[in-house]
From TrEMBL:
The keyword Oxidoreductase applies. This is Aldehyde dehydrogenase family protein. Keywords: Oxidoreductase. CDD domains: ALDH_KGSADH-YcbD. The keyword Oxidoreductase applies. The active site is at residue 248. It holds the Pfam family Aldedh. Residues 1-10 have a biased composition (Basic residues). It comes from Microbacterium enclense. Belongs to the aldehyde dehydrogenase family. GO terms for molecular function: oxidoreductase activity, acting on the aldehyde or oxo group of donors, NAD or NADP as acceptor. InterPro entries: Ald_DH/histidinol_DH, Ald_DH_C, Ald_DH_CS_CYS, Ald_DH_CS_GLU, Ald_DH_N, Aldehyde_DH_dom.
Length: 481
């Protein structure tokens, strides 16, 4: 049965009002639910609710905040199979990956439950006699959270959990494609013991809800993950409002494969990075930079691996590559493949696939014979598409890898420790992988990039406190006893 999703404001689930259908990309005849679209007035009600709840929530003990997150983690873990099924059905991610993503959300909640108890601070003597200095961390206040559809429970969790852990209140705007996962996560956290108004959920478009959050003077911090164009607009709007802002905006991630690489390992790392999650992740390996001596064998092996990947319904356990998320994304993927061919690349794969159900199925594509100036190597496609760039040696590979406006993730496959160490230092990216896919990161370490990929402090791990809390320095003169 279809579900009518509702906003959550001040602890109350609102009237869904006029709603748009949420359709399964694996089966266009399957409507999962209906999501409302908030107007600006509704957004401001949610912001006011968060602002009103901020003083009491920020005054709770670290243990109380940890207990809420730990309780939520336990429920997410206990419902992992159920929630994984909804995620696969709603977003199109193959069931094994979808279930693993739910597990990651549970890990994130548990980790940040611990972080709530590890806030810490410093007590240091002043240079002035008799005075001490206390350095503490305090909540920022009201945090706006804007998330994409490609990781519909993991990304919201790694933003909402640290915000709550450090005593902030939240207004959450999820992607329009994945309202069901957002509703489930918020419901779990709300029932775990959050006071009314500490976490508010508002569905709607970026043009209305996102803009209202970015421009609101009562939002103290705004964290965003999404496309470059939208992200730059959000940063500009938030900056104009004087709001602390953090933005993750995609990548055009290089994977360098040197002549001395383990060929099987390199093929598997590139296939995983390029095509798993239907290539719909900002850390995907979209530029495969391969040295001349191994190029032909690598391409032959990757094509064989690619052709063996079953494209199909996300709930089919045999599926390796699920559907593209919607018609607009499918058309974008195909447009980039046409442009690549027009610019001289050879496109292998990348055709629509028919299955028992109507869906947005696209076979993985590899574009060979490209150079780094082509659009396919400059712009983020966000689909099951990778291109190969042949280079002479490591020095040229490093130059090409860094010749991009992005800087999220970069990888290298090599048997040389010297090359690996040099690449980890010289690659202009926030994350570097050696003999591993560019996609796939741990939840307890920093996540984020540089250049056009990221703006503001890193996400995840203990480094998340740099965004979700601010440092206060207090000078104390006890006076005469």
């Amino acid at each position: 049965m279809s579900t009518h999703y509702r906003h959550l404001i001040r602890g109350r689930w609102g009237d869904p009002g006029e709603a748009t259908p949420n359709v399964n990309p694996s089966d266009l005849d399957d409507t999962i639910g209906y999501a409302p679209a908030a107007d600006e007035e509704t957004v401001q009600e949610a912001v006011a609710a968060a602002a009103d709840a901020a003083p009491s929530w920020s005054a709770t003990t670290p243990e109380a905040r940890a207990d809420v997150l730990d309780s939520a983690a336990a429920e997410v873990r206990s419902r992992q199979a159920e929630l994984g099924g909804l995620l696969a059905r709603e977003e199109g991610k193959p069931i094994a990956e979808a279930t693993a993503e739910v597990g990651r959300a549970a890990h994130l909640l548990r980790f940040f439950a611990g972080e709530a108890l590890r806030v810490g601070g410093d007590l240091v003597p002043s240079v002035r006699s008799g005075m001490t200095v206390e350095v503490t961390r305090e909540p920022v206040g009201v945090v706006g959270v804007i998330t994409p559809w490609n990781f519909p429970i993991a990304i919201p969790t790694w933003k909402i959990a640290p915000a709550l852990a450090w005593g902030n209140t939240v207004v959450f705007k999820p992607a329009e494609n994945t309202p069901g996962m957002a509703g489930e996560l918020v419901d779990i956290l709300h029932r775990a013991g959050l006071p009314d108004g500490a976490l508010n959920l508002v569905y709607g478009t970026g043009a209305v809800v996102g803009r209202a959050l970015a421009e609101s003077p009562r939002v103290d911090a705004l964290t965003f993950t999404g496309s470059v164009g939208v992200g730059r607009g959000v940063v500009a709007q938030a900056a104009a409002a004087g709001t602390r802002v953090q933005a993750e905006m995609g990548g055009k991630n290089p994977m360098v494969v040197l002549d001395d690489a383990d060929l099987d390992l390199a093929i598997e790392a590139c296939a995983n990075g390029a095509y798993f999650s239907t290539g719909q992740r900002c850390t995907a390996s979209s530029r495969l930079i391969v040295t001349r001596g191994i190029h032909d064998r690598f391409v032959e092996g990757l094509l064989a691996r690619m052709r063996g990947m079953r494209v199909g319904h996300a709930l089919d356990p045999r599926t390796v590559v699920g559907p593209v998320v919607d018609a607009r994304q499918l058309e974008q993927d195909e447009r980039y493949l046409r442009v690549a061919a027009e610019e001289g690349g050879e496109v292998i794969g990348g055709h629509r696939v028919e299955r028992d159900t109507r869906g947005y199925f696209l076979s993985p594509a590899l574009v060979v014979g490209t150079d780094n100036a082509m659009r396919i190597n400059r712009e983020e496609v966000f689909g099951p598409v990778a291109s190969v760039i042949e280079v002479a040696d490591y020095d040229e590979a490093l130059h090409v890898a860094n010749d991009t406006d992005f800087g999220l993730s970069a990888g290298i496959c090599t048997g040389s420790l010297a090359a690996a160490k040099d690449f980890t230092r010289a690659a202009r990216a926030g994350m570097v992988m050696v003999n591993a896919p560019t996609a796939g990161v741990d939840y307890h370490v920093p996540f984020g990039g540089m250049k056009g990929s990221s703006y503001g402090p890193k996400e995840q791990g203990s480094h998340a406190r740099e965004f979700f809390s601010f440092v206060k320095t207090a000078y104390v003169n006890p006076g005469r006893p």
